[in-house]
Amino acid sequence: MRTLLDDFSKNRVLWITLGILSALLLLATQSMQLDDWLLTVLRGVAMGAVIFLAAAGLSLIFGLMDVLNLAHGTLFMIGAYVGWSAYVRPDTIVDLTTPILLLTAGFLALPGLQALIDHWTLPPTVARVWPWLAAVAALALAAGVLPQYPISMWDAGVYEQSPVVWGLALEQGTLVPPEPAAFGGLHPIAAVTALLAVGGLGALAIAGWRTQPSEARVPLSAWALAGSVALAGIGLLVVNDALTAWLFSLDTTWRFGFAIVVAVVVGMALGGLMESTLIRSTYSRPIYQLMLTLGLGVIGMQAVIAIWGRPQISMVKPTLFNGTGDGCPARSLGDWLTNQCATIILFDARVRVYNELFIIAIGLLVLVAISLVLGRSRLGMIIRAGVQDRAMVEALGINVQRVFTLVFAVGTGLAALGGVLSGPSTGLTEGMGESLLLLALIALAIGGLTSFPGAAAGAVLVGLLQQFMVKYGQIGIPLPFLEEPFKPTPPLVPASTVLLMVVILLVLPQGLFGRKE
Amino acid sequence: MTPATPSTRPALPGWLSRNLGPLGGLLALIAFPFVVAAQSGDSPVAVLTNESGNAKFYQGLFIEVFILAIYALSYDLVLGVTGLLSFGHALFFGMGAYATGILIKSFGWELGPTIVAVIGIGVTQALAVGVVLPRVKGVTFALVTLGMASVFHIVVQTHELSPWTGGDVGLQGLVPPAILNPNADRLRFYLVSLAVMVLAWLAYKRFVDSPTGRVCNAIRENEGRALMLGYNTFVFKLIALTIASVTAALAGSLHALYQPIVSPNVASLSFTVAALLMILMGGVGTLTGALFGALAYRLLAFFLDRWFGQIADVLLGVVYIALVLFVPYGIVGTWRRRRGRGA
Amino acid sequence: MSAPDIHLALEDVQTFIGQYQILSGVSVSAPRCSITALLGRNGAGKTTTLKTIMGLTPPRRGNVRLDGQELNGRRSYEIAALGIGFVPDYRGIFRDLTVAENLQIAERRQGDFKRKSELIFDLFPDLRRLIGLRGQQLSGGQQQMLAIARALVPENKLLLIDEPSEGLAPVIIEHLIVAIRALARETTVVLVEQNFIVARQLAERYVIIESGRSVQTGAMADLANDRDAVQRYLGAA
Q1: Which of A95, A271, B343, C1 has the most C-beta neighbours closer than 10 Å?
Q2: What is the sign of the dihedral through the CA atoms of A29, A34, A36 and A37?
Q3: From the list A438, A489, A505, which residue is nearest B150 (CB)?
Q4: Residue A496 CB neighbour total at 10 angstroms
C-alpha cells in the first residue's frame, strides 16, 4: 500500500494524464452504441498493436545505441511486400534463396580469407591494387551470371504479370502456379560455382582493403559456417521445384505462417546488415546517422516501388480467418475454429477475427515475449544495463557491439512482422512505411523514447485516438455550442495524434514513462 | 587566412582582396544570364527583353537555387550554428509561401503589405514553436517540431480549406504583382532573389560574428556551460529561431511568387530533409556552405532526373549516403579544413 | 621471468580525447600481487590512465602490456576478458538492475557469481541484505562496495580501482582498506587515490602523474618520507 502511494506521488502527472484519458474514453460511450464503442476500441488496440511492433524496435534501438532509425518505416514496408511475395508467389522466394545463400557463403568466409591473406607478403603496389581487381572481377562475374540465373517472378511493368493481378488471382482462387523457371544456356553447376566465386572474390577484396590484421587464431567455425550455408543453397537448388510445388499446394493459413517467417528473417537480415556495415561507423556522429538512416529509408522505399510497382496490391486473408459460409458469423471461439469464420459476434458487435483479434493477439504475444527476455534473461540484463552505460558493460568484458547488432536485427525483424501482419488487413501501398514511421515516432515520443513499456502504451494510445477520430468522422461529436455534430475530416485524424504528442510533451517533456536525465 | 601574402599580390585595397571570392561570385551570377544567352547563340539583349530560351530557363533554375539557398541558410542558423535539431523547418517556409499566396490571391493585397505580413507571421510562428524550447531538447524537440510541421502539412490539404489553400493539389492561380513578375520580367526576379540571398548571407555572417551569435554558437557546443556563464540560453535560442523563421518565410514568399503552384509538399518532412541535405552538402554550420549546398542539391536533382528519370530518387539517396559516410564536412567544410591544414 | 614479476606495464603511453592530449607519456609497472597507487592532482590524467588500460580511451602512442602481451588495438571487452576488473570513479552501478543482477552481469562463465559469493559476502557482508534492491536505491558507500564486489565476480587477475575512498565515511574507508589489502594477496591492484593518507595505508608502490606524465615512482614507504615530493606534486598532505 505504501509503495503504491509512493508510486502515485512520484508519477502524479502520469497517473492524472492516464486518468483523464480513460475518462475521455468512457465518455465516448455516451455518444455511441456499446457495440460501436467496443468495435472502435478493438480497432484502436489492433492498430496500436501494429504500431507497437514498429515502436518496440525503435525504442530498443534508440535506448541501447541512441540511434533513431528513420529507416524503420521502410523495413515495415519491406516486411509487408516480402511477406506478400512469400504468400502469393512462394516460387520467387525459393528461386531467390539459392543465389542469396551462395553469395552469403562467400562473404561468410571473410574471417577465414582474412587470416589467409595476412600471411601474404606482397610488394606494396600489388597489395594496393589486387583488392580492386578482385572487386572488379566479382562485379563482372555477377553482371555476367545473375541476369541469366533463372528466377520466376512477377513483372510490375506488365499489367497481366503485375503484383496487382497476382494478388487478385489468389483472392479469387484462380491462381495457377507458374511454370518453374529453367536453366537456359547456363549450366547449374557453372552458375553455382560462379555465384560462390562472386561472394568469395568480394570478401577477398574487403579483406584486402582492411588495414588491420585479424585475430591470430584461424577461425575454423567461420569456414564451417560458410560451407554449410553454401551446402544449404545447393541443397535448395536440388529440391527447388518440389519445394515450390509443395508450398503452392499448402493451405493459405500455413502459407501465411511461411510468409511471416520469411518476412521476419528478411527484416532481421537487412537490419543486421545495416547496423554492421553502415550505421556502426557513425555512432559518434548523431546528425549524420539520422541522415544515413533517412537515406537508407528513401532508397529502400524507392527500391520497393521499383520492384513491386506503385499501385496498391492486396493480400487475401488466410482461410482460417476468411470463412463466410454456414455458421458464420461465429457466436463463440469454438464456433469460429470449426467454421473458420471471418467475423465473430462479441456483445452484439461483428468483430473481424483477423483485423481485430488476431493482430491484437500477436501484439500481446510479442509484448510478453520481449518483456520476459528483458526481465529474465542475461541478454535482457545486458540490454537494460547497456541503455544506461554502454562503456561500463563493455568494461565488464561483454561484447556490446554484438548485442547492438542483435537488438537492431530483432527491432527491424519486429517491424517486418508488423508489416506482413498488416498486409491482409489494410493492403500494401507505397505510402505505408512513411505513415507508419510517423505514428511509431509519435508513440515513442509519447511513451518516453527509451522506455519499452512506454512504447507499448504510446502505440495503443495513438491507435485508439486514430480510430476514435475515424469513428467520430462518421457519426460526429456532439459539442454543446454547435447545432450540427462536429465531424473531424480524414486529414484531421493524423493531426489529432500529433496534437496529442505535442500536448503530452509540453506537460511531460520526458514522455509518460520516460526518465529524467 | 594567410596573413603573410599581401606583398606578393598586386596592390588591392585590403577590403577588396579579402572579399575577392564573394565579390567574384556575385559578379559571375549577375553576368550568368548573359553568358548563357551568348553561349546558346542568342543575343544578350534577349535577356533584357525577357525572350524565352535557354537564358530564361537557366535563370529560372537559378532562381530556384537562390530560394533554396535562402531557406537552407536559415536552417543552418538553427541546426548548424545554434545546434537545435528541428525537423519542422519546412513549416516556416510553407507558412510564408501559403500566406503570400492567400493574401495576394484571395484577399487582393499588394506586395508591400504582404511582405510585412509575412515577416509578422515569421516572428509569430517562431514564438509559437519557441514555447516548447525550455521544455524539450534534442530528439524530443525534433519530434515536436516534426509534429507541428506535419499538422500544418495536413491542415493545408484539408478539404474545408481548399478554397484558400487549394487542398492537396496546391495553391494555384496566383497572379504575381506587376512589380515582381517572374514571367513578364524574369531578369528582375532573378536579380531580386539574388539580392535577397546575398543580403541574407551578409546579415547572417554579421549575426554569427556578433556577441549574440557567439552565444548561439556556445549553446551548440555546450548548453550547460553557456547556462552556467549566466546566459539565458532560451532567449538566444528564440532569437536564432525567429531570425531563421523570418528568413525562411521570406524564401517561401519568393517561392509562391515564382512557382505557378504552391504544392503542400513545401511543408512536408521531405522538404525539411532537403534543407538538411543542402547544408550537409555544403558543410554544416558554415553558412556559405548552405549556398553551395543549395546549388549542388538543385543541380544534382535536375541532372539525375534528366538522365535517369525513374530511378533518380534512388540515386539521390545513394549520393546522400555517400556524402554522409565519406564527405561529412561538406563542400565548404572540407575546403576550409584542407586550407587550414595547408596553412 | 626476471626478478620482479611485472604483471601490468605501461610504456610512455600517450592518449588523446578528441584533439586534446590528455596523457603525454605515462609509464607504470605493477608487479604481480602488489598494490600500486597512481597519485597526483586533479586533472593530472590518473583516471584517463586507467581508462587507457581498459581500452575505453585507446592510446595513440606507447603501449600497454599485460603479462608481456600487448593490448594495443584490442577492444575494451577483449581486454576485460583477459582478467581485468574495472571500478570507475563514478562506480558504474546499473540503476535499473538489482544488486544480484549487477553482480551476475559480470559473469564470464555461468555460475561465476555462485562460486565467488562466499568471498564477496565475507568482504562486504552488507551486500547480502541489499541483494534485492535496485542500483538506484543504494547509497554511495553501498554502490562503491557493489562496484568492487562486481569486479571480483569473474576470475580477475588485475583490479583497476578509481577513487575507492571518495565520498565514503571513515568507518567504511577503513573497512575498504582491509578488504582491498586482503584481495591483493592473489590479485594485482592498481588504484587512483586522492586521499594521500588512505593511499599510504593501502599501497606498496606509487606512481606520481603530473600534467599527463609519470614523473616519479617508487616504494610507498620512501614517499612518506619525501616531504618535498609530497608537497610539490600532491599539495599539502
Answers
A1: A271
A2: positive
A3: A438
A4: 19
Beta-strand ranges (E) seen in A164-323 are: none
Closest by CA position to A315, among listed A263, A275, A270, A362: A263
C33 touches chain A (CB under 8 A): no
Confidence band, pLDDT 50/70/90 cuts, at residue B250: very high
More confident residue, B69 or C225: B69
Residue A130 located in a structural domain: yes
Does some domain include residue A213? yes
Mutation target for B interface from A277, A291, A489: give the one with most B CBs within 10 A.
Answer: A291
Distance CA B265, CA B255 (A): 12
Contact between chains at C94 and A399 (C-beta distance less than 8 A): no
Domain ranges, ordered by start, for chain B:
52-267
Q: Tell me which residue range forms the domain holding A171.
A: 89-250
Q: Which residue of A has its CA nearest to B160?
A: A489
Does B324 contact A282 at a Cβ distance shorter than 8 Å? Answer: yes
Total domains, chain A:
1
Q: Which residues of chain A, if any, have pLDDT below 50?
A: 1, 517
Burial class (CB in 10 A: 0-12, 13-18, 19+), B186: buried
Q: What is the mean pLDDT of residues C49-64?
A: 89
* Terminal CA-CA length for chain B: 8
Distance, in Å, from the CA atom of B54 to the CA atom of A321, rounded to the nearest integer, reads: 62
CB atoms A288 and B79 under 8 Å: no
A378 → chain C, closest CA residue = C105
Query: ipTM value of the model?
Result: 0.89
Q: Which of A290, A439, A451 best probes binding to B when mutated, by most B CB atoms within 10 angstroms?
A: A290
d(Cα B231, Cα B221) in Å, to the nearest integer? 14
Q: Quote the minimal CA–CA distance from B235 to chain A in Å.
A: 18
C-alpha cell at A322: 476468411
Between B157, B313, B316, which is nearest A491 by CB?
A: B157
Q: Is A469 in the B-facing interface, judged by CB distances under 8 Å?
A: no
Residues of B whose CB is below 8 A from A63: none
- Calculate mean pLDDT across residues B96-123: 93
DSSP C88: -
Tell me whether residue A308 is exposed, middle or buried, using C-beta atoms within 10 angstroms of its C-beta: 0 to 12, 13 to 18, 19 or more.
buried
Residue A106 belongs to a domain: yes
Cβ contact B324–A295 (<8 Å): yes
Residues of A with CB under 8 A from a CB of C: 212, 378, 381-382, 384-385, 387-389, 391-401
User: What single DSSP character describes residue B77?
Assistant: I
Q: Cβ contacts (< 8 Å) between C101 and chain A: which residues?
A: 381
| Run of H or E residues at A417 | helix A400-426
The reply to whether C133 touches chain A by the CB within 8 Å rule is no
Does some domain include residue A286?
no
> Domains, chain C, ranges and CATH?
6-83+157-234 (3.40.50.300), 90-148 (no CATH)
